[in-house]
Each structure stands twice: as C-alpha cells, then as structure tokens.
Amino acid sequence: ETGVTQTPRHLVMGMTNKKSLKCEQHLGHNAMYWYKQSAKKPLELMFVYNFKEQTENNSVPSRFSPECPNSSHLFLHLHTLQPEDSALYLCASSQMSGSPSYEQYFGPGTRLTVT
Amino acid sequence: GQNIDQPTEMTATEGAIVQINCTYQTSGFNGLFWYQQHAGEAPTFLSYNVLDGLEEKGRFSSFLSRSKGYSYLLLKELQMKDSASYLCAVRDSNYQLIWGAGTKLIIKP
Fold first, then answer.
1. C-alpha dist (Å) from residue B21 to A16, A31, B43, B74, B82
2. Cα(A109)–Cα(B89) distance, rounded to whole angstroms?
3. Which of A105, A100, A114 is closest to A35 using CA atoms?
4. DSSP state of A52
5. Chain A residues within 8 angstroms (CB to CB) of chain B
6. Rounded to whole angstroms, how far apart are CA atoms A5 and A24?
C-alpha cells in the first residue's frame, strides 16, 4: 500500500463510451500526476496538478480530460478513445512537483482496454 | 531530445549480485531516481542521487556520475522477490521527470 488508490483496477470500454478513472491520495501531498504506461515504453507524463491547478499538459489529446476537485482527488475522464489508448494508467502524488528530491508515490494503476 | 537508456531485460541467479545501468541525456539535471515495479503493481521508490557517488540502502546501492551521464543500481544477495522491473528517471531543468523504459530483472534459483 503506497497511500494512493485507484479505481477501477481494470476497465474495458468501446470507442464510443464515456468513463472516468479515479485516484485518491491519503498522504497529504499537494501535487498529483497522471501517467500512461505502455508495454516496453517509458512512462509518459500526461497531466500535473499543483494545489489543484493544472501545471502540465503534455500534448495529450482532448479525448482525455483531467479534473482535480481538491488536493486529494484526481479524475481522468475518457471519451471516444482509440484502441492505441489501451495501456496502464498510473496516478501518482508528491509533496510538490517542482521540488527536486521529493519522490512520487504511485497508485496500482487502471488497466484500460479499448475495443 | 531527452533520452534515458537502460537494458530491456537481465537475468541473474539467486544470491548473486547484479548491476543495472542507466545512461541519460537530458536538458539539465536535478536528480536521478530508481523505482521498482513488480508486475501488475505500482512503481515504488528505491533511491535518489543528486551528487556523484554511491548511496547505499541495505542490499541496494545506487551510483551516479553526472559528468558521464551515468548511473547504476546494484542489487546484492539477490532474492526471488527482487524479480521486477527497475525504472530509471531523471529530473530535468524544468523539474520534470524523464523516464527510461525499465529493465526487467529475472531471478533464477
């Protein structure tokens, strides 16, 4: 247990569906992140939030829409996804995204399959 | 562009020592991290290096040479539970983490 939880753990959705991924951290951190992890590829940073404000958006397609209602919760809303979006989506948190030594704590991820 | 290189897969024997290398080319440097990720689980933090030299934590050690853009993770007295992927990540001048693709370590009895 890392103090970061994600739901659901597995999700299968069609290309026309709308779904949301949820992340919650119980560590008192103020930065939260969404990553995409595909097999044999580096982790791809998608979004960063500091104190509920989005500070990074790494050219992510608009079919992925993040939401951060407070420092403890992070959502990723999905709509009209493509099969190449199938991957493990990881949520992480840390003290602050701009602090050099603070490590990130990861949730177990949501395994997403787009059919 | 920014790049982190590490071997895709390594195999070692239980009880032995293994060294996993990581080389990087990034815009600036603000520290290097090693994470461990068991299959189907979250990556977990192992070590952080920002100055040259060796950091030791029990059976695991991490080394950094900033001038060479090089780090390694050394695992001693290998146990079966050490079978996992090991991820190298560098924090660049914008404090963004740049990740390697990970090294899958297979431990054989």
1. 43, 29, 18, 9, 16
2. 19
3. A105
4. T
5. 2, 4, 40-43, 45, 56, 90, 97-101, 103-109
6. 5
DSSP B46-57: EEEE-SSEEEEE
**What b/e string do you get for B90-107 counting C-beta neighbours within 10 Å, with b at 16 or more?**
bbbeebbbbbbbbbbbeb
- Taking a C-beta distance cutoff of 8 angstroms, is the pair B4, B102 a contact? no
Task: List, for residues B50-104, the tens digit of each pLDDT value.
Answer: 999 999 999 999 999 999 999 999 999 999 999 999 999 999 888 888 999 999 9
For residues B63 and B77, what is the distance between their CA atoms, to the nearest angstrom?
18
In B5-64, the residues whose Cβ lies within 8 Å of chain A are 8, 30-31, 33, 35, 40-45, 48, 50
- Chain A residue with minimal CA distance to B91? A100
Nearest CA-CA distance, residue A11 and chain B, Å: 14
